[in-house]
Structure formats: C-alpha cells, structure tokens
C-alpha cells in the first residue's frame, strides 16, 4: 500500500528518477511526510507536515552559560580572532551572510555556513552530515586549518590557564582537568538552546488564524501542494533527510562539493546534501550549499524547477516567499557574554 | 609658586628632561594633578586624583539602540565580516587582545587597538589623538583600507536598502535619508554608554573601606607616591593628556608609529601618545601602543623605569598590580543586538 500512495504523491515530478534511489535516501521519513501531505490535502483535520518549535528546556543552566562563553571566545582559534560566532553570528540568523566563510588568514571556506539556529533538529551536522551531532560538529572548525586553525590540545591548553574557566568547568563537569569533549559538550548544550519558537507561522499552527495573511496561507498551501514538504517538514522545516540537489534537472555550480558521497563513498549519493532548515530563511541568505543565490524568490524558483520540475508563476512565487518569511521566529535573547581574561602564562594568539 | 611645587614633585625623575618640554605637553592638567598628588600625601582629607565613574545617563535610548546595532553590524565593512566589535570586542574589555588588529584580508594593523570602554573620557581618539571625538573616530576604521576597507558612501548605500534601518534612522534623526554623520553619531552615542562604574576601587573611593585589601590600598598609595597619577588620573585613570613614551629612557620598539608628531608636525612631539586609560587594565592586554607586553606586572615595571626613572622591587610591583586590578568595573550589560536582514537590492559583501 505504501508504494502505491507514494507513487501517486511523487508521480508528478519523479519520472526520471530511479525509485530505489528515492527509497534509499528519503526512507521512511520523507515517505511518511508525503503521506501527511496527501492527508492534509484530502482532509482538513489532518496533521500539518510542519510542527511548531517549542522553547528550549534548559536542564543544566551552568553548562549552557559556559557553552555560550566558549561559543563567543576567539581564543578557541589559533589567531585569537575567530570564534564560533564569527561564522554562525547570532546577530544575523546564526550565519555570516556570506557565500562561504572567512577563516584563518582570510581563507575562503569551501561551502556556505549553515545556520546554527534550530540545528539540534538536524539528523546530522554539516551539509554532508559528516558529524553525527552538535558536539561532534563543534570540534570540527576549531581544528580545521581553513577555519579556526587551532588544535583541540592547544585550545584546551589555553582554557586551562584561565582560572575562571577552570572553575566553570569544575562546577559543570566536576573534574579538575579540562578536556575537548567537555568543551564541545558545553558548546553543544548552548547550541541546543538556539531554537526559534514564536514565529507567526507557529502562532497560526497553534490556532491563531489571524497570525497569517491570506497571501501567506495561500503560499503555505502551495508549498504543500507542489511538494516542498516532502523534504522541508518537521519542526525545522528541513534537516531530517539527505536529498539530491538537482533531482530533476542538474544544479550548475563551480563548487566542487559532492555532498553525502564524500562521506559514504557511495557514487549514487553524489550531490546529496542534508536538506537545510527553512526556519528564519529570510535571515540566512545567501542560499544553497554554494551560497550563490541571494534572493529568496530566486531560490524558490530554482528549487521548484530543479527538484520538482515545476515552473512557478510570479503570483505563486510571491505567495511562497510570503509564507517562508512567516518562519522567522524569536531570535537569540540573551546578554552578550563577558569572557574571563587570559593570564601571563596563557599561550598567546598567533595570527600567522 | 607653581614651578617650585612642580619641581619638588617631578624632581626625582626628570633630571634629563627639558622643563619646557614637560610644561608644553603636560600643561596645566598634569601639573595640577601633580599638585593633587602632593596634597594627598600631605593631607589625608585631600581629593583623590582618580575619580569614580558614574553610570551612563542615556538621554536618547533609540539612538543608542541604533548605534549598538551599527556597532555590531559587519555590513559596515567591505567584506561583510568585520564590525566595530571585531576589534573592540565588548566581551573582552572592548579590545581584541591582540598586539595589533586584523583587518580586511587579514591585514595586520599598525598599532594596538585601544579599548572602547570609557573612551568618552579621552581628550581625543586614537593613540595619536587625530580624531577629536568618538564620532570622528567611528568614521575612521570604516573607510580605512587596512581595517574595514569600505567607504562612507558604500556603507550608507547598504544601510539605505534595509527597511528596518531606514525606519530606525528616520525615528532617531527625523530624516528620510541616511548620512554617514548620522551613522557615526549613533555609534558614538552607543559608545558613550560604554562606561564601567562599580569597580572595587570606585566602591572604596565612595567610602567603602572594606572594598580594597591592605595590599591594594598600599598599591594605590605607591601608585600616587611614585608619580603614576601625574598622567593616570581622572575618572578614566588616563586619557586626559599626551605624554612622551620613553620620557627618562627611550622605549625600544620596531613599531614605526611616531604618535602625536604625525598629527601636529611638531618634531618635539615624537613618541608622544595619548595616555591610555587604566580602567579594566587586566582585560585590555597586550599593553602599549605596540601591544608588545602581555604581563601587567612587566608593563608596570617598564613604565616605572622609562617614565619615572624608578626601579620597583617585587613587593612594590605586586602591590601596584593588585591595585590596578581593582579598576575592573561593570562590563557591558545588554542583550546581543539582532540585526535586520539585507534585501535583494542590498549591495553584496566583497571579501576580495
């Protein structure tokens, strides 16, 4: 029964795609969501494919506070100049709003920095999912020579010379010694709090009919009808599966990233990327893994054409863009963290 | 009568210095302060040469909020990556804790970034005082090709495409058009709020005898007795005059900055720099205009030797350092600003 339903749902756009490929990658999640979409079209009482975001439940406030300091601390980089917040800037939708990020010695990174907002909903981290969770991700840029260019050992060495950090780590982890696992654990705990509830769309989902305009509601209906929710669903409106970018028509780019294939070694996963969240999409330009598109309307047209084989008219595009802008939620709401000073024996930054 | 007093005060350290030079540069301020020091030694009821910092009085909250956003907005730079806060990081004592700052394309700047904290007390801005006030200073880095590498015109062009900024500027300045003078005025208004009252030293100044330890009080007395307050006085414990760095013995550095002479063209003002504030000095390492000294104790020894011809013993140095650390006040206490998104017609950042 499932394949029958699925083929009805996918039928309009997947003529040229091998069924096994879809089944392998999308798996039960997308298929299940496909069914949800079908249901919501058929029955008005059905559950929506997008779920509201709930505020973060903080169970260890001290760990979150420590993680927040570390997130803003450029001493986790070789130069002492770059922090997590440099490229995942919480003043700017958790991104740097650049096609790809600037790293140590102004090295231009290979791929667009995904937003950290709502990243705890992702099935894995990075565009290619090579980190299984936020903690594993947090260790990546610190030691990447094109990003923060440090090493885990050197970062820990710096922190260990700073009495206030030693006290915070001891308080949170009960340990005399600081480890990189503690560092990334604390950063991940902070990042888990970076969810954005309260969007107008979520207000509507929760029953406030006045939260959206008619144009925005039409946009959402169209978003479902044309099939966007097959991938962009769940609380983060994405992040739950890997999908091929250029499913119906190839995506032309000079960015060499092959996505999921580089992680699994599977040729058929070439150009499969983690579906990005659409939460706060109006803040997280430029779009796509190569950061090549700055205009949300243009991005919507490209996605419709390449992924769904569909050409949207101007009205449809405008409606979907209007809907997408209702996904902007409450942005990070906390005081700028104050960092404890280095000491005379703290290893010094090296900008070279 | 004044020269007689002054010669008593300066006598111990100025054997090799032309009196006219001192008179010219220090002028009434330092001389007056020298008298204060003498008085405070002679009479216990005398006024202290350091005054407490009072909390900022905010008269135009909307302008301050706008200035805060602009201060954190990297779109005032060519690359879209560097903001005022990149080098005057409010999480780190209003500095970058680097010998000299990193600018566009990782250009290493020529001089140590002074703290923005309490900078409204300075007689002028930059180490050489080439900007008369905070507003004039704010325009400097934006257009400096080694710093933010933008132009005033381009920065304004960016802001004008962002509806939320247009609305904020109109609200604050009542004008349809955004100008660079409005931009720097707003930034300066925000910076004027960046004062740090509440230090333990100020608590003591206001009558709380328990706010300082005996060691810290001894350090302050020594700070006055050896003559530091001749220049490091007033609410910011500095910032009120230009002084020659290397007064008694020359300061050896490979930094080519000539200080005040480069502004005035006066040869006798070579190596004259604005006396830096000592407020929050434990946070604003590394020290001096070349950022060459990381240890506060070492900086104190160098200053005593080069400026006062005095060799401090270990106990004296420890006491003065202990006193200086009581000058750390309340750090910036506000929520991380959230920036309004660019629009499709916003000029795009250029990292090249």
Word description of this protein:
The structure is a homodimer of 352-residue chains. With 352 residues, the first copy, chain A, is mainly α. Chain A has one domain (52-332): Cytochrome c-like domain (Cytochrome Bc1 Complex, Chain D, domain 2, Orthogonal Bundle), CATH 1.10.760.10. Chain A is 39% helix and 2% strand. The first copy, chain A, contains 13 helices and 2 strands. The first copy, chain A, has a two-stranded antiparallel sheet with strand order 1-2. In chain A, α12 packs across α13. The radius of gyration of chain A is 21 Å and the shape is globular. The N and C termini of chain A lie far apart (62 Å). The A-B interface holds A 72-74, 79-81, 86, 89-93, 96-98, 102, 105-106, 108, 282-283, 285, 294-297, 331-339, 341-342, 344, 348-349, 351 and B 72-74, 79-81, 86, 89-93, 96-98, 102, 105-106, 108, 282-283, 285, 294-297, 331-339, 341-342, 344, 348-349, 351.
